[in-house]
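Please check our next protein.
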Amino acid sequence: MALSVLILGGTTEGRELALRCAADRRFRVLLSFAGRTQHIADPGVPHRIGGFGGVEGLLVHLERERHHALVDATHPFAAQMSRHAARAAELVHLPLLRLEGAAWRELPGDRWRVVPGLAEAPAALGGPPRRVFLSIGRLEVGQFASAPQHDYTIRAIDPFVPPLERARVICARGPFELAAELALLERERIEVLVSKNSGTPSTYAKIEAARKLGLPVVMVERPRLPPVETAPDVASALGWLTELHEASSALSSSTLPPSTLRGV
C-alpha cells in the first residue's frame, strides 16, 4: 500500500523530499504551493498551486484526497500556514511532521542586531540615511515605509513596484553563491543588510558576504510556531515517513480509510 503524503511546500528541502517520495513506490505524494510566487518552477512531481481556504479548506482537502500523512515544509516565516496545518492535523488525528532546519547562528565576525519581528526592523536601521539591502521577499516590504530616508535595494523572485520612494528591485531566484553576493553588496554599496533567519543553506551566502565585508545585519527572529514533531533535514523526514509506512503496512489497503492510519 502506498502512503499518501501531502507536502506543504515553499522550500528547497520540501521539493527535494517530494522528489524522493515520488521516486519511491511506497509513497504517493502531492506537493502544494501557496502560489505567492508568479512563476513556480516545475517541481517534477504531482503538485497543486493555491491556498486551501484556511483550516476548514485544508480539512476538506485532506479528507477528499485521503491523505495519510502531512509534512509542513513551508518557509519558517509562513507562520499562518504552519498554524493551519497543526490545527487541521490535530482535528483529524493525522500524523504531522514539520521539516525545519536549524536557524542560523551568529559567528565570530558577524555584526547582528536581532529583532523579534519585521515590525521592529525599520527602527533598527537607525536615523541617518543608509544604503539597505532588503532580502525579505516582497510581501512585507511596506513595513519600511516608516523609514523613508534610506535607499533600498530589494531582492525578490518576481518583479513588483515597491511601496517605497527610494527603492529598486532586483529579481533573482536562489541558490546564491558567495562570490555573487559579495559582488552584489559591493556594487550596490550596501551599508546594512536586513534578513529573516530562515536557516536556509541556499540563501546563507549573503550572511557570509556581510561577515566578510564587515557589514551589520538586522536579523529577524523566526516566529513562534505550534509545538509539533520536527525533522531537521530531508533524510530525517524520509525516515519518519518510512517508519509510518512500516507501521501501517500490516493493514489491508482494500479497507484502509485515512482515519485508520491516524495516530499510528
